[in-house]
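Example record

The entry below shows one chain as it appears in the dataset: sequence first, then C-alpha cells.
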Amino acid sequence: MKTMDIIEIEFKDTDTTPDRLIKATQALIAVYGYDATTTRMIANLAKVTLSAINFHFGNKENLVREAMSRAAQELELHYSKLAGEIRRFLEEEPVDREKAWSYLDRILTDRIRRAFDRRASWINIGIAEHENGLPESSRGIMARTAVEGSERILAELILAVSDKKNAFQAALISRAVNAAIMSYSEKPLLNQYLEESLGVDLSDPRRVEECLHDYFMTSIAAAVVVDPHKKII
C-alpha cells in the first residue's frame, strides 16, 4: 500500500494549479478511496493552498468528478487508436477471421502490458477498485470508458472469430478477461499457481505476460471455436 510519503506523481512545469489538484486527487483516490481522501491531503500532495480547491472547483465532489473525467479521457486516448483500427476492420464484409485473431493477439498484448506497467496503470487500476465508493456524480465514469474502449471491442473480436455467434457469451468472456488482467497483480494466489503449476519464473515479468496472453488466447479458442485444432492462433 502506498502512503502519502511515497505516492509517485509527476507534475510538469506547465501544470496549472487545477492540473496539480486533479493529478493529486486521482492518485489519492486510487490509493485510499473517496471517503478516506481529505481535501487537506489533496492540497498537500498537490503542494497548493487548501483554499485553491474551493476557488477552482467549488468543493471536493466537483474536484473528484473532474479528476475522474480527466482520467477517463486519458484512458480513452490510449484505447482509441487501436480500437478505431479494429472497428474499421470489423465493418468489412466478410470479416477475415485470421486477421480477427491477429487483432485479438494485439489487443490482449496491449492490455496485459499496460496492466503490468505499474507506472502507467496503477492510478487507473486503483480508481477502478474504489469506483463504487465515489459520489454518484463521479461513479461509473471510468467504468463506461473501460467498457467502450476495451470490453466492447474485445467482445466484438471474440464474436468475429466465434463459430457459435453468441454475443452474450462473447461479452461474458470479454468481461472475465478484462477483469482478470486488471486485478491480476492484486491476486497473489494466481502467481503461486503460475509458478507451481506451470513453472513460470515470476521474476521475469515479460514471461508472466506471455504466459497470460497464451492462456487467454487458448481459452477463448476453446470456448468459441467448435474445432480448435483447425485453427492457428
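Notes for this example: Residues 163 and 192 are 34 Å apart (CA to CA). The chain has a mean pLDDT of 88.
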